[in-house]
Amino acid sequence: MRRSYDGCMKLRPLLVAALVAAGLLVPAGVLAQAHVPHRFAALHLTDAQRTQIQTLRQNYRQAHPKGSAPDPAARKQLRRQILAVLTPDQRAQLRAQAQQRRAQREQHQGNDNTIFPPSPAATPI
To answer: Which candidate, 99, 94, 97, places its Cα nearest to that of 49?
Structure first.
């Protein structure tokens, strides 16, 4: 019984080294992708685009921390800046995604009446 424990102790440094090496092999793009909103994932952004968008968003967050008053003009500016980073094809793809989300939301809202029918008091007599 003692031998198997000694064998595990000898393998532990090798296992730790293998896990560390595997962690170092994770592409930087995968890590950078985590900081870009989900809606950009399907656009296949380049590393440069990810970095630019991440910087724009960080600058916006610094200028407009959570709890501060909403600034619609600043949000529009951020949106324009992000769109300027994208290629025409990526912008078209982003618009198509937005239209799809809007259609799904409208469809879901239309289905709400089947799940939650209006109360009897709300119906005209």
So the answer is: 94
